[in-house]
């Protein structure tokens, strides 16, 4: 009896997903495009948290390039690149239990989509993690987007491009010198260093704040009560996955370490 309700919940959950997948498949069939079925929605928060655990097992499925497992991972498009388009054509549909994704690799079609912003609105729900500091141009639509665009037009415009390039070049030179000064084993901090470079360029262009290159020491940030813009963004990027998966209030629980509370 102890396991009855968990098993019932699991069966109900599976049946619901199968039925939802069936309905979405019917909708996708009406489009007349090639279809790829994924029984798991790649951006499902629970799956995002667990996909690393199941990654090794999932890769053992003996279906090769056409396996549904190819498109279950969050960010699958970075690994798949153009392979599915080579196999299926310029446009195809990824069918999942939650929604259908139309993947397009035709320049004329993509240009037409981007020129019709009112017909093809952005999926704002995908950008909720960027609302950590409140509504912004990345998460706004319609009139609110126009207002946000006016606010950002001054610090971010074509006249700032030379500054962005100059600071990028300076930061890249410093990063290269830092890498060359490493031991013969090289460095394993490439993601952290490139993120730092991007943050420093952004801080310089937006606020005229120039920082010497160097990976941002998180242990130092965690000891501070007041953070700079650069340090705040660094914490957000470092914990972007947790921010997407977990509710904001969870980070403020008193028994959590200070580093987790700073995220909230």
TrEMBL record:
Example of a GO MF term: heme binding
Q: Which InterPro entries match?
A: Cyt_P450_sf
Which key words tag this protein in UniProt? Answer: Membrane, Transmembrane, Transmembrane helix
Q: Nucleotide-binding among the record's keywords?
A: no
Listed transmembrane segments: 6-25
**Gene3D superfamilies, per database record:** Cytochrome P450
Q: What is this protein called?
A: Cytochrome P450
């Amino acid at each position: 009896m102890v396991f009855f309700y968990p098993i019932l919940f699991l069966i109900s959950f599976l049946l619901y997903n199968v039925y939802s997948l069936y309905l979405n498949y019917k909708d996708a069939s009406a489009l007349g495009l090639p279809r790829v079925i994924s029984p798991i929605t790649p951006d499902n928060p629970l799956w995002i948290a667990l996909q690393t655990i199941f990654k090794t097992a999932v890769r053992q499925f003996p279906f090769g390039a056409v396996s549904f497992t190819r498109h279950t991972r969050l960010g699958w498009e970075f690994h798949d690149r153009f392979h599915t388009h080579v196999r299926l054509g310029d446009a195809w549909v990824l069918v999942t239990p939650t929604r259908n994704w139309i993947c397009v690799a035709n320049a004329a079609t993509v240009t037409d989509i981007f020129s019709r912003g009112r017909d093809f609105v952005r999926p704002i729900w995908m950008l909720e993690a960027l609302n950590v500091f409140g509504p912004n141009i990345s998460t706004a639509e319609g009139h609110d987007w126009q207002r946000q665009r006016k606010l950002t037009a001054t610090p971010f415009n074509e006249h700032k491009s030379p500054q962005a390039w100059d600071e990028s070049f300076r930061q890249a030179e410093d990063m290269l010198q830092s890498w060359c000064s490493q031991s013969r084993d090289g460095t394993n901090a490439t993601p952290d260093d490139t993120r730092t470079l991007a943050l420093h360029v952004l801080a310089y262009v937006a606020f005229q704040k120039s920082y010497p290159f160097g990976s941002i020491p998180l242990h130092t940030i965690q000891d501070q009560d007041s953070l700079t813009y650069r340090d705040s963004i660094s914490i957000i990027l470092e914990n972007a996955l947790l921010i997407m998966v977990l509710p904001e209030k969870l980070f403020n629980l008193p028994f959590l370490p200070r580093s987790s509370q700073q995220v909230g």
